[in-house]
Specification:
The structure is a single chain. By secondary structure, the chain is α+β, with helices and mostly antiparallel strands. The protein has one domain. The protein has two helices and four strands; from the N terminus they run ααββββ. A hairpin with a 5-residue loop joins strand 3 and strand 4. The mean pLDDT is 90.
């Protein structure tokens, strides 16, 4: 039985190594700083966050098999946000918001020890 030739093993450069080399380390430093800030925001808000690293590659020239390519890296943090403040209101008979329950009467309350001025 003839022996099969072994497939050629292709070296794949680690992504982390590329990221450290891109923009003289600027992309790696930016991603590291944004990740650190994101972790803090997740701890403060108790919600999930996201860090997106987008790598775009395009040919440097018009050739299909260009030996040079232009690579851009964009680091986009998506930290969790605090919940906006909320308030509870009642809806009156006209459909307006009010702080007082329209189905309850109001008591004429005054501060003790002060005369009521009319």
């Amino acid at each position: 039985m003839p022996t099969q030739p072994e497939p050629e093993v292709q070296h794949v450069r680690p992504f982390a190594e590329f990221l450290q080399a891109h923009d003289k380390g600027g992309s790696h430093a930016s991603a590291s700083a944004e990740l650190h800030a994101l972790i803090g925001a997740v701890q403060v808000h108790g919600k999930a966050g996201e860090l997106v690293i987008s790598v775009k590659v395009k040919p440097a020239g018009s050739k299909r098999n260009a030996e040079q390519v232009i690579v851009t890296v964009e680091v986009t943090p998506k930290p969790p946000k605090a919940d906006p403040p909320a308030s509870i209101f009642f809806v009156d008979r006209e459909g307006n918001l009010t702080r007082n329950n329209p189905d309850q009467g109001e008591l004429p309350l005054t501060v003790a020890g002060k005369e009521a001025t009319q």
